[in-house]
Amino acid sequence: MSLSDDKHKITDQINQTNSLKELEELRLEYLGKKGFIPNEMKLLGSLSIEEKKSKGQELNQLKQLIEESIKEQKIYIENADLNQKIKNENIDITLPANLNSKGKIHPITQTTFDIIEIFGHLNYSVETGPDIETDFNNFSALNIPSHHPAREMQDTFYVEGKKNEENNVLRTHTSPVQVRTMLKTKPPIKIIVPGRTYRSDSDSTHTPMFHQVEGLVVNKNATMADLKSTLIVFLKEFFHVEDLKYRFRPSYFPFTEPSAEMDVAYTKKNNVIKIGEGDEWLEVLGCGMVNPKVLENCNIDPQIYQGFAFGMGIERLSMLKYGITDMRGLFDVNYKWLEHFGFNALDIKTRSEI
Ligand code: DAH
Questions:
Q1: Worst-scoring range by mean pLDDT, 28-32, 97-101, 195-199?
Q2: Residue 191 — φ and ψ, nearest 5°?
Q3: Ligand 1 mean position to 303 CA, how many Å?
Q4: Residue 315 C-alpha to ligand 1 middle, in angstroms?
Q5: Fewer CB within 10 Å, N- or C-terminus of the chain?
Q6: CA 232/CA 246 separation, integer angstroms
Q7: What is the mean pLDDT of residues 38-65?
Q8: What is the mean pLDDT of the chain?
Q9: pLDDT tens across 257-307, in order?
Q10: The pTM is what?
């Protein structure tokens, strides 16, 4: 059989294929490593120069023709497959709609919204900062000396710095944003800082990543009385309890002087916690007057300015407000859990509507 007979036979064969699989089999048969064309090419070696030239040319033309026919047939088969698929596809409009496919807002996000909203009404603005911080912003500027236990490896995740630079850290609290803000703006300052924080700690009540909200006020006349009244208003609003029972306890933070922690009273009945009354106390936040050394470290004159600051853990506030008893639920990525504890986006009311 001559090559021109082959030509017709082969293109017919290609045009009659109905599937990509069949087409691929033909491609291998003719163009594959051990296929017809490569075999014929090998045989050229035994021919005279003249014959080699003309047969070689013919073979190359045939190869090209096969390649083009396969390409065209491939497009034809793919189109036919698609048309068939479209024809077979129909929507069963009698099937019930999937009502549970709506997402929910995570309690951590909701609690952050709650906190921002209350402080928004008190004229605070929101600042944010990076998760990876310098040692200076996270520790030194905040008067946490190098021998302070918070600097030990077991508490802090260190991030290797560039050659000859000091190590960075995953911020262990949101307080470094105080430093960033004071370094870049002149007082008066009135900010809250929600964000992720990290500590090398993991047990039933600690997770390596958690969330905090920081607060900072710096002006010429901020007092401890302003700090106390601000936090009392905040917690009453946050827990929706008008006659909230609370107390301030003296405490210690290197970046505030004097420092305090704030507790709210609670009762526990049938494993349900009720916030605001009773004889048991729960710590909810840390606070104090900004240490003059911190103001100095941030180029603010402590003879002219003073301020107060506070910091709280969002997980804890969220659990207390929304009755979540197991902290791990907050991080489990369990849709059933989120269905129960999450919030519908459209149900969120602004405070003025409540
Ligand atoms: N940074 C503290 C912590 O992570 C929380 C805190 C306490 C922040 C008192 C403050 C403050 O601004 O005044 O435990």
A1: 97-101
A2: -130, 155
A3: 23
A4: 15
A5: N
A6: 8
A7: 90
A8: 91
A9: 999 999 999 998 887 888 999 999 999 999 999 999 999 999 999 999 999
A10: 0.71
Q: With CA atoms as reference, report the closest residue to 108 among 285, 287, 276, 341.
A: 341
Q: How far, in Å, CA of 58 to CA of 26, rounded?
A: 20
What are the residues whose beta carbons fall under 8 Å from the beta carbon of 72, sequence distance 6 or more? Answer: none
Closest ligand 1 atom to Cα of 256: 13
CA-to-CA dists, residue 87 to 17, 76, 77, 92, 93, angstroms: 21, 17, 15, 14, 17
Query: From ligand 1's centre to the CA of 211, what distance in Å?
Result: 12
The β-bridge relationship of strands 246-253 and 256-269 is: antiparallel
Task: Please write down the long-range contacts of 202-210, taking CB distance under 8 Å and 24 or more positions apart.
Answer: 204/326, 204/327, 204/328, 205/327, 207/315, 207/327, 207/328, 207/330, 207/331, 208/157, 209/331, 210/313, 210/314, 210/315
Mean pLDDT of 106-121: 96
CB atoms within 10 A of CB 323: 13
Query: Is any ligand 1 atom within 6 A of the Cβ of residue 256?
Result: yes
Closest-CA residue, ligand 1 atom 8, reads 311
